[in-house]
UniProtKB/TrEMBL annotation:
Keywords assigned by UniProt, alphabetized: Cytoplasm, Methyltransferase, rRNA processing, S-adenosyl-L-methionine, Transferase
GO terms under biological process: rRNA base methylation
PANTHER family found in the cross-reference section: 16S RRNA (URACIL(1498)-N(3))-METHYLTRANSFERASE (PTHR30027:SF3), RIBOSOMAL RNA SMALL SUBUNIT METHYLTRANSFERASE E (PTHR30027)
Record-linked Pfam families: Methyltrans_RNA, PUA_4
Molecular-function GO term, any one: rRNA (uridine-N3-)-methyltransferase activity
Name by which UniProt lists this protein: Ribosomal RNA small subunit methyltransferase E
Reaction it catalyzes: uridine(1498) in 16S rRNA + S-adenosyl-L-methionine = N(3)-methyluridine(1498) in 16S rRNA + S-adenosyl-L-homocysteine + H(+)
Main location: cytoplasm
Organism annotation: Roseovarius tolerans
Secretion signal span: none
Domain annotation Ribosomal RNA small subunit methyltransferase E methyltransferase: ranges: 78-234
Length: 241
């Protein structure tokens, strides 16, 4: 049996004997770039049915088909955790999305704050980065990347049952704060490079579900803060514990 060296995200259902048609881009990648051919093995996942080993049944320049043979990994869903962050420069925003997908965020929400540097995002491009990250890290789940949303609108309609980890560099003792709050539905909020405005801080402080926590004594860049915050939460309440 040939060893599968490539993982692909597909949108089709996966199951024993299921035939999977490839898109033009997927066919080009598998057969043109990676030089795979009929009989070669590929690992597939769709975010619902776990990971499956499939074999190339047809290979063409613009199309192809795979056939599922056996499940290699059951479906593993991440904790019910959202990451809210203010978009920054293109490459660093891409980094945040990639790392959030790798580290177990279930939903990624770019937010517009008073001091957000970037007012536009390419949602489709960021979603593609989340897919690529899941393919590379062995995950079976791809988080949704939403469109850009206004922070004040989100807070005005915040669900009572979802706890909010509000990253505040002026505080300490994050782990204890999170464990004391408990709950299964959470979100992490990372501020923009210029920090939160006083209006936003006041609103966050008044939100019953918000829990201010520290990421240490140094001021972190937004992309570093996202990774640090995800690590703190996962170790305290997530599937790393």
């Amino acid at each position: 049996m040939k060893t599968a060296k490539i993982r692909l995200y597909v949108e089709h259902p996966l199951g024993q004997g299921q035939t999977i048609p490839l898109s033009r881009d997927q066919a080009h990648y598998l057969f043109g770039v990676m030089r795979q051919g009929v009989g070669d093995a590929v690992l597939l996942f769709n975010g619902r049915d776990g990971e499956w080993r499939a074999e190339v049944a047809e290979a063409g320049k613009r199309s192809g088909t795979l056939v599922c043979e056996a499940q290699t990994t059951p479906q593993r869903d991440p904790p019910d955790l959202w990451l809210l962050f203010a978009p920054i420069k293109k490459a660093r925003t891409d980094f945040i999305v990639e790392k959030a997908a790798e580290m177990g965020a279930a939903r990624i929400v770019p937010v517009q704050t008073d001091f957000t540097n970037s007012e536009r995002i390419r949602q489709d491009r960021l979603q593609a980065h989340a897919v690529e990250a899941a393919e590379q890290c062995g995950g079976t789940f791809v988080p949704e990347v939403t469109g850009l949303q206004k922070l004040d609108t989100l807070l005005a309609n915040w669900p009572e049952e979802r706890q909010l980890m509000f990253c505040d560099e002026a505080l300490a003792g994050a782990g204890a704060t999170l464990r004391a709050a408990g709950g299964e539905r959470w979100a992490i909020l990372i501020g923009p490079e210029g920090g939160f405005s006083e209006t936003e801080r006041t609103r966050l402080s008044a939100l019953p579900a918000a829990h201010p926590v520290s990421l240490g004594p140094r001021i972190l860049r937004a992309d570093t803060a996202a990774v640090a915050a995800l690590t703190v939460w996962q170790q305290a309440l997530g599937d790393w514990a």
